[in-house]
Specification:
Elements lengths: L4 H4 L2 H9 L3 E4 L5 E4 L3 E4 L9 H9 L3 E4 L3 H9 L8 H12 L3 E8 L2 E11 L2 E9 L4 H15 L4 E5 L3 H4 L4 E4 H12 L6
Parallel strand pairs: 7-8
Antiparallel strand pairs: 1-2, 3-8, 3-9, 4-5, 5-6, 6-7
Length: 195
């Protein structure tokens, strides 16, 4: 039986797809497709790179970090770009994942305002990073550091960031083939943890 586009965005189906390594993106026509790239990018949690200058900034900045207090606001800020793959329909679908406890965010506040953050989807011991935003310098980088430290504390084993970028390289992001990614994903699926 073929599933309708609406069925493909039901939370139960979405988390099944994430657990297999796939992720959704809306194209320029707002049609949502699922992707399973042959090359995947991860940040190794056990030995990520924490640049010295960023470490100093992270420790002494006036940023306040929160988790899961403004998930949809973070997503909407991530979508505020000239071109975005985060459509309104996808945001509505994410709300279903939020209800099931699989959608999470790290938020960065300064002077009581949301100035940066990131969000992603969790399944067992894996965090599937989706997007990040920054309204002030260093906010998204600090959000990522906060996420990594949190995932380590909670015994997550996999941080998937989908595609390599210059921004992610500084944290030691690695491109790996899908077989390697699948093996790491299987290992993460055997981990019981909570965000």
């Amino acid at each position: 039986m073929l599933l309708s586009e609406k069925d493909l965005l039901k939370a139960e189906y979405m988390i099944l797809m994430y657990s297999q390594g796939a992720f959704p993106m809306a194209d320029e026509n707002k049609k949502i497709n699922w992707y399973l790239p042959e090359i995947r990018t991860i940040i190794p949690l056990e030995n990520f790179n924490f640049p010295r200058s960023l470490r100093k900034f992270y420790c002494y900045s006036e940023f306040i970090y929160k988790i899961d207090t403004s998930i949809i606001s973070v997503i909407r800020n991530c979508a505020k770009r000239e071109t975005t793959w985060i459509s309104d329909e996808l945001i509505e679908a994410y709300k279903g994942l939020k209800k099931l406890g699989h959608l999470h965010s790290v938020e960065v506040f300064k002077d009581d305002g949301l100035v940066g953050g990131l969000y992603g989807v969790t399944y067992k011991g894996a965090f599937f990073g989706e997007s990040m935003f920054s309204k002030v310098s260093q906010a998204s980088k600090c959000a990522l550091v906060h996420l990594i430290l949190h995932l380590r504390e909670k015994n997550f084993t996999l941080l998937d960031v989908q595609y390599q970028t210059e921004h992610l390289k500084m944290f030691g992001a690695l491109e790996i083939n899908f077989d390697d990614f699948r093996n790491r994903l299987l290992l993460s699926n055997s981990v019981e943890t909570s965000f």
